[in-house]
């Protein structure tokens, strides 16, 4: 490598080290402000809100619950590329590099100050990160060019390549010291800051200390039928279990850093078009009669055959009771929920109040809600997609109208009212699987039409006649329904399996192919399996 190339590489390194110092300082200061104020998180959250819905859908489809890790990796890579450019610019002309850092810092400040649910102090980590980055850049560039240094052997002509010393680094000792110092600061600040954030803002200790009261109305009978399902069909092996364990429950939200809400200070304010404003503490909620219900929650972004649907036993307070106490006025057709992280989710009041088990949920599968699933309190409304009903980390509920307020996803073009659509899925066998000719193959899966119910499921092999599957018993219409059809392949080669479900009224699910946007996917799920 000639001197020129080596100098370029070194300039890039100067940029990377300075950016690392900026990011590290940002994380460290964010540990004193709050985790969402971290510049990288703030930029990521802004990117999430700026991303057009089709791209979001694509990301959810491609990466699922990994979408956040992918986004953060992308941001780090982009910052690294910009940092190299800034470094190269700075070694030529320091002011130019400093300007670049300032622009990046300004982006961080802007994102922190415009985030959903932002606070004024959220800008502080970005400001400190920018200043730290500028300081590091200045020191490292001066060591390289020998400008502005007392001990330097340079001529001070950092701008002019012709008069520059013919060495790579004008002040080698100063550069080494600065570089090692910057790297150490970045690593300690970054990882230390993150660790501090995790200890200072962590709801898991509070969560672990909670003992939920027993429900006055339990989902016990339901547990029996879930067990019966598994026994009858061996669905544990051949399909999906009725209950989704919390660790496997799908997760969809825009929170790059999971809100850590302290149950001791948590409050839910119920206001707007009501006769009496209510403010409930966590203790108030637990003091009320709790019910426990099996509910299948589904995401509107779920593709036909997708996995953004899960079933849990939710424990909570019936929301309609609370709303009757507040006295929701006629005309308030929307209940607008706001979360600790500024998400807004609007539900149709009539649906919440129609007698179904809409809840302010505090528990999931017998334990307090997991932090990722909304601890301490979330909404659950059987029959509505999550984006119009299932606000996690809820802190505010306003009785309003659809005309007056558009919730977050609705502003993105999604349907304002989101009833779950009748659908079905084949879980076994999978498309990649082989089955044996002449053997009995359980074709199994789930079908759902929450709060309406599934009355029949049929399976079709290679375009032939539709065959009726056996349905598992269900606790209520609010959950998915497991089904199984025993199929004996009679010939080798590829076989196409399709499934369709019928609702409680005998209506079949729509075969028209529609993408999830804007009101949920339709079409029949099919898998192709090989028999040999
Ligand atoms: N605060 C908050 N609540 C939210 C969301 C969100 O992004 N933020 N996403 C909603 C969507 S789109 C769905 S499908 C459900 C998913 O709930 P889960 O992550 O517990 O499965 O949460 C809903 N509640
Ligand atoms: Mo969703």
The unreliable regions are 149-163
What is the number of domains? 3
User: Which hetero compounds are present in the coordinates?
Assistant: the ligand Nc1nc2c(c(=O)[nH]1)N[C@H]1C(S)=C(S)[C@@H](COP(=O)(O)O)O[C@H]1N2, molybdenum atom
Biggest sheet, open or closed, and with what strands and sense? 5 strands, mixed
The end-to-end span amounts to 59 Å
Mean pLDDT across the residues is 92
Structural class: alpha+beta
Account of the protein in words:
This protein has 14 helices and 19 strands. The chain starts with a helix and ends with a strand. 37% of the residues lie in helices and 21% in strands. With 532 residues, it is of the alpha+beta class. The chain folds into three domains: 3-201, no CATH class; 235-411, Sulfite Oxidase, Chain A, domain 2, CATH 3.90.420.10; 423-531, Immunoglobulin-like, CATH 2.60.40. Strands 2-1-10-5-6 form a five-stranded mixed sheet. Strands 3, 4, 7, 8 and 9 form a five-stranded antiparallel sheet that branches. It has a five-stranded mixed sheet with strand order 12-19-18-14-15, with no helix packed on it. A hairpin with a 4-residue loop joins strand 5 and strand 6 (344-348). Residues 249-255, 297, 299, 339, 341, 343, 345, 373, 386-387, 390-393 line the site of ligand MTE.
């Amino acid at each position: 490598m000639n001197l020129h190339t080596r100098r370029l590489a070194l300039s890039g390194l100067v940029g990377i080290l300075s950016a690392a110092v900026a990011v590290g300082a940002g994380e460290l200061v964010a540990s004193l402000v709050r985790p969402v104020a971290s510049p990288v998180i703030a930029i990521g959250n802004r990117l999430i809100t700026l991303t057009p819905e089709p791209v979001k859908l694509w990301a959810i489809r491609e990466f699922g619950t990994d979408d956040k890790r992918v986004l953060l990796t992308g941001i780090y890579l982009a910052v690294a590329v910009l940092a190299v450019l800034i470094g190269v610019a700075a070694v030529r002309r320091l002011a130019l590099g400093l300007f670049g850092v300032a622009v990046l810092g300004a982006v961080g400040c802007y994102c922190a100050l415009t985030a959903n649910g932002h606070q004024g102090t959220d800008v502080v980590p970005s400001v400190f990160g920018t200043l730290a980055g500028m300081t590091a850049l200045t020191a490292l560039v001066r060591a390289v060019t020998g400008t502005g240094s007392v001990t330097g052997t340079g001529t001070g002509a950092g701008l002019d390549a012709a008069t520059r010393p013919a060495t790579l680094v004008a002040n080698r000792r100063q550069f080494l010291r600065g570089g090692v110092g910057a790297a150490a600061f970045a690593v300690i600040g970054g990882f230390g800051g993150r660790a501090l954030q995790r200890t200072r803002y962590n709801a898991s200790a509070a969560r672990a200390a909670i003992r939920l009261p027993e429900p006055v109305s339990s989902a016990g009978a339901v547990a029996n039928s879930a067990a019966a399902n598994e026994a009858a069909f061996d669905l544990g092996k051949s399909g999906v279990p009725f209950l989704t364990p919390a660790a496997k429950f799908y997760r969809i939200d825009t929170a790059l850093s999971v809100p850590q809400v302290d149950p001791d200070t948590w409050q839910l304010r119920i206001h707007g078009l009501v006769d009496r404003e209510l403010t409930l503490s966590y203790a108030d909620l637990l003091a009320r009669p709790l019910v426990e219900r099996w509910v299948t929650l589904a995401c509107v972004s779920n593709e036909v055959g997708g996995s953004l649907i899960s079933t849990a036993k939710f424990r909570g307070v019936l929301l309609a009771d609370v709303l009757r106490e507040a006295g929701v006025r006629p005309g308030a057709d929307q209940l607008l929920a706001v979360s600790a992280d500024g998400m807004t989710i609007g539900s149709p009041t009539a649906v919440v109040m129609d007698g179904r088990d809409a809840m302010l949920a505090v528990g999931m599968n017998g334990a307090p809600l997991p932090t990722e699933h909304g601890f301490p309190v979330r909404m659950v409304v059987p029959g509505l997609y999550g984006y119009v009903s299932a606000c996690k980390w809820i802190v505010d509920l306003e009785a309003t109208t659809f005309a007056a307020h558009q919730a977050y996803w609705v502003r993105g073009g999604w349907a304002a009212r989101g009833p779950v659509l009748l659908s079905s899925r084949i879980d076994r066998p999978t498309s990649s699987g082989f089955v044996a000719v002449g053997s009995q193959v359980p074709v199994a899966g789930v079908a759902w039409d929450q709060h309406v119910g599934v009355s029949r499921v049929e399976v079709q092999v290679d375009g032939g006649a539709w065959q009726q599957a056996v349905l598992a018993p269900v606790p209520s219409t609010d959950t998915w329904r497991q089904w199984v059809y025993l199929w004996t392949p009679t010939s080798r080669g590829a076989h196409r399996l399709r499934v369709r479900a019928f609702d409680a009224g005998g209506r079949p699910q729509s075969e028209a192919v529609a993408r999830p946007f804007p009101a949920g996917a339709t079409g029949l799920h099919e898998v192709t399996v090989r028999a040999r």
